[in-house]
Structures are given as C-alpha cells and as structure tokens.
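Example record

One chain of 237 residues, shown exactly as stored in the release files.
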Amino acid sequence: MKTTIVRANERSSVNHGWLKVNHTFSFADYYNPDRIRFGLLRVFNDDFIEPSMGFPPHPHDNMEIVTIILEGTLHHKDSMGNSGVIKPGEVQIMSAGTGVQHSEYNASPTERCNVLQTWIFPKVRNIEPRYDQLTVDDDKLKNQLFTFVSPNKDEKDAVWINQDAFYSMGKLEAGTKIEYSPQHEGNGVWLFVIEGSVKIESEILHKRDSIGIWEYSKIEIVANENTQIMAIDAPMS
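Predicted structure tokens for this chain:
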C-alpha cells in the first residue's frame, strides 16, 4: 500500500475577493511539481464563489469534468444548449470531448456557493461533448460509500463517465466502520473529508484533508465523529 496526504492547510488557497480557491493539485498560477495529479485525476478544486459572481464562458476539451455542489446554487450554461441551476445534493458531469464552452455563476444574489470541481483525463479522446446531471438520494449515503458516478452506462443511480473511474460519497455516523476496495483493477482512490474526522488505516484526517491510496486491496475507514466523505476511484495510469 502506498499513500500520499494533503492536509487542508497544505493546499494552495487564494482569495480573489469574488472567489476563494483551494487547489489540491497544480492549477492556473499554482505549480507544485510534487502535486501535478493523482493518477488520471488531474484537478481537485474546492471553490467558494460570492453571490452573483462566477466564471464567464470558457473552453474545455478532452477532459471529464465532474462538479458537486456542497452549498448554495450554481447556474451552468454551455454551447451544447444546456442551461440550469445545480443545487446541493446534485452532481453534474461534462465530457468535454472535441470541445465545449460553458459558464458557471453563483445563482444566488445573497448566498455564497461552495463547489467541488474535479477533472479526470478521458478514456477515449475526441468523443462528442456530453452533459448529464443527477440528484443523489441522501438516504443512500447513510453509513456507506454510495457510487454516483460510474463508467458503467447501465448502472442505476449513477451518471456515466468516459473513464474507468467511480465517484462515491458517504455520510457516516460517529463510530461507523466501513471497508473500501478498488472498484477497477489497478485503480487508486482519492479520499476527501468534506466534514468531520475519520481514521483511515493509521492516519487521522480532518475537515478538508485528503489522502490518496494505491497499490492496495482493502482499506478500513472509521468515523471519529459524524462525517461526510467522498472517494474518487481512478486509474493510476
């Protein structure tokens, strides 16, 4: 088993006024040669967007972009004709493929928005751009890691991703113990503590801490308090 840990205060944090960004991996003006990516997981940003502010139209291509709303609301509009508001408990996936433009704005004039945005390199390049959105049933998160993004097109209660990657989330009550194994051969897992505190193997992780684990067969996760955690199970190469 191999591990790497990024504590919340070890991330690159920049306050632009309208936007507070927390980069786990090298992104934009932040460059850390030791934190370029985790396997094929290229970007993990924890962003706070002020009311009515956001990102004007900008392009992407050949990247799987998964956006999760933790707080507030986000208005998305893209060149594929999609337009709408994403709320807490919802996940958005955009396969940029041959190229797409989109904008993202805080949909509220009074409340800030907290967004987790992740990018994963695609399995197949230059596919037709695609958009999907899903509401994650909160009941299914109780005391387990529930998969809501999957490479299996026919999987119920999950949106499809163009990569052998899986996104799972759980809300664990204090004292809950669960086990996790790779969902695809050779995958590693990036675990992110949204709220609370957990023990993963011998490591204690707190709010906004992350741990990457690879070359493993099974890990044990124990909630030290009521905890919300997310797992990104992704190829390492």
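Notes: The chain has a mean pLDDT of 97.
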